[in-house]
Design brief:
mainly alpha; three-stranded mixed beta sheet; 7 strands; about 60% helix; disordered N terminus
């Protein structure tokens, strides 16, 4: 009877996590638009179902798995805003429920595990809402850490396989922080195998890794994605960007970040560190708890360093409830059911940080570059495109001119639908191709000018990119390129050595660029 009651309570808890994970991400993910991020995987996933693939058909330096996974949601649930957010909401739920299982496995009560897991569900994915490579990579990396801990505690070969699979998925979402976590997990697995004298376990780890690499190479072969192209676009080019950012490892920069931006994370890591030392001396703590706490100290340090390298909006604040839960577990005593003062303060602190970052990133949409949004300015995005029903449209660029932006986009869509043959559309609004049911995807997913989305002139892979771009235009016999502000002729004119592009302004944001004799010397 007791087991049935416990099973029932567990189902209720998981249902609550599901409810919060999905509702929070759907609600906040539908508030406001930062075009280049909001629609990063919308059109690209739509085109995968038309036969296009990343690396092979369009240049991409990250997000390989996100593209393909999103295409499955579009295939099953149709191409619309709800299926787009279903993807990220699903990942949010999986991560939150695994966090819940992790805390229970560590020895926390179900109520405490639920409490911290709900905080994670509120903070993890709703800050961006839509599928995003940084969130995917970090979340799948953390899932690999959970399963690493499960693996070492249970010595389960199945958990070991999931650990390695999660890391592989994280890497195919974005190379960092997955690459850093790969080093961390490898170090722990090697150390564990050598300590226990169990080399069979290490052999399994290498075998699973080899098997996954073999399956991926087979996938590349079947889909005609060149291995050389994959290495250049996904491995070598990103490494060349990383080398240019090496100055971010300066000690002064990291220390300032620890004190300013990541003060709460730093504070919690210090508490964990001193708790481990203090209780280890007394020899009263289960070694398994020390192991889990120690690995999350490394996880936090890796996450902070990665955040410094990327220099994007802060996305690692959802680690706070996890660290607080770990501290709760370190100091809790199952023999004493009463909540002591320190645990009470931890609960209050968790409520505080959850509310603080929820207010900043969910309510005020900081990730989308908003500050104190006037919600009365929202426009129903279905006015622009049918497949955006459910999205509340407002952008930071046109904060006080939303109606102007919407009208210009509607006018542009009408024009593009009538003039889409033998053309590509370069835009941050990457829902346009799917809305007009275009058949040709541009040779690049993103067109940022900072050298991150494609190799600029100073990069050694610049010529590879130019040849790739030209080849795709020739293959599709493109004679027109349409750009929507902020993109213009300068977005692609460096590809052509001749003055062979005639530009015509269609409306206030849309431009037509006619290509004439640009490929005379291209083979």
């Amino acid at each position: 009877m007791m087991n049935k009651v416990l099973d029932y309570s567990e189902k209720i808890n998981i249902f609550l996590i599901f409810l919060v994970s999905f509702s929070a991400n759907y609600y906040y993910g539908s508030i406001g638009v930062l075009p280049i991020d909001t629609f990063a995987f919308f059109d690209s996933a739509f085109f995968i179902n038309k036969g296009y693939l990343p690396i092979r058909d369009y240049w991409t330096s990250n997000g390989f798995f996100v593209d393909i996974f999103q295409s499955l949601f579009f295939k099953i649930l149709a191409v619309n805003w709800y299926s787009y957010l279903f993807h990220s909401s699903f990942i949010n739920f999986i991560f939150a429920v695994l966090t819940y299982k992790f805390f229970i496995n560590e020895g926390l009560t179900k109520k405490a595990s639920l409490f911290y897991s709900l905080s994670v569900a509120i903070l993890a994915y709703p800050s961006v809402g839509v599928p995003f490579p940084d969130h995917h990579s970090l979340i799948f990396s953390l899932i690999s850490i959970y399963f690493l801990i499960f693996t070492i505690k249970t010595k389960s070969k199945t958990y070991l396989f999931i650990t390695i699979l999660s890391l592989a998925i994280a890497f195919l979402c974005k190379q960092v922080p997955a690459g850093f976590f790969l080093i961390l997990v490898s170090a722990y697995l090697i150390n564990f195998s050598l300590q226990k004298g169990n080399k069979i376990f290490l052999i399994y780890a290498f075998s699973y890794s080899f098997l996954l690499i073999l399956v991926f190479i087979l996938f590349l072969f079947i889909t005609s994605i060149g291995i050389k192209d994959f290495f250049i676009q996904y491995i070598l080019f990103p490494l060349s960007i990383g080398s240019e950012r090496s100055d971010l490892f300066k000690i002064k920069s990291i220390l300032l970040s620890l004190i300013n931006e990541f003060k709460f994370l730093s504070f919690l890591v210090l508490i964990i560190f001193f708790q481990i030392i203090n209780i280890s001396k007394k020899n009263v703590l289960n070694k398994k708890k020390i192991f889990s706490a120690t690995i999350f100290v490394f996880v936090t340090v890796i996450s902070i360093i990665n955040q410094e390298i990327m220099k994007n909006q802060n996305i690692i604040f959802f680690l706070l409830p996890i660290l607080i839960g770990i501290i709760h577990n370190l100091i809790s005593d199952k023999k004493k059911e009463k909540i002591n003062l320190f645990i009470f303060l931890l609960i209050i602190f968790n409520i505080f940080v959850t509310f603080k970052y929820h207010e900043r990133f969910n309510e005020n949409r900081k990730f989308m570059d908003f500050r104190n949004i006037n919600k009365s300015n929202f426009i129903d995005a279905s006015i622009i495109a049918n497949n955006l029903k459910g999205l509340k449209w407002i952008t930071s660029k046109y904060l006080s001119q939303s109606r102007f932006e919407v009208d210009q986009l509607k006018e542009s869509l009408i024009f593009l639908k009538a003039n889409k043959d033998r053309s590509i559309i370069i835009s941050e609004y990457q829902f346009i191709n799917s809305e007009i049911d275009h058949n040709i995807y541009p040779p690049n997913r993103w067109y940022t000018s900072d050298g991150v989305s494609y190799p600029i002139k100073s990069n050694k892979y610049h010529e590879n990119y130019i040849n790739f771009f030209k080849k795709k235009l020739v293959e599709k016999n493109i004679d027109k390129i349409y750009t929507i502000e902020p993109y213009g002729k300068n977005t692609f004119d460096f590809v052509f050595k001749l003055d062979c592009v005639e530009t015509l302004k269609i409306n206030e944001i849309l431009f037509q660029h006619k290509i004439t004799n640009c490929f005379a010397n291209f083979k």
